[in-house]
Design a protein that fits this description.
The protein is built from 6 helices and 7 strands, in the order αβαβαββαβααββ. By secondary structure, it is an alpha/beta fold. The protein has a single domain, classed as Vaccinia Virus protein VP39 (Rossmann fold). Helix 1 crosses helix 2. The chain starts with 6 loop residues before the first helix and ends with a strand. The relative contact order is 0.14.
Length: 193
Amino acid sequence: MSRDYSVEAYLKAREGRLNRWVRCFRTKSAIKSITDGGGLIAEIGASTCESAAMISAAKPASLVLALDKSLKQLCLDCSGTCKTCADARSLPLPAESCSAVVLISTFKHIYYPEKLLQELQRVLVRTGELVIVEPAWWLLKLAGKIGYFDLANIANLWKPADYRATLSKNQFDVRRSGYIGMMTYQIVVARKS
């Protein structure tokens, strides 16, 4: 069996490694922001459950629930997590059942963020944490301009100030907001107030 040493093969392999590194970086940033204490941690927009598995491994005292509205994505094998197919605006969880909710590269796809935030207010415990990690707004705009990314799938191109204002308006106390990773990602950590 011969190996493909073409430039195309090299670039494809390099892009795969970079994508894995980026996913790992985003998830580790989110994990660091979650306070230890057990309880239920829900990852909304879990897709392939890769991030949920990393959260589960890093927070063994917590139960991690991976939620995504795509059943096809959730059917992929991922041990150590519970999986549920659900719409983020109507979560199948009892009131005040989550100690933390994590959204990694998901919030930008939500067309009615206020509806989502009302639902998160319902499912989070009194001091529950909300962690949002998104690509920086300027990076998404640039990727859209050069044709690398389709901006038609994006509902929100928000700056950290936009997150702070919307979360505050929806009874969340923003603890941390800003850029990480050479300003390529933005992170927002908020508590239910």
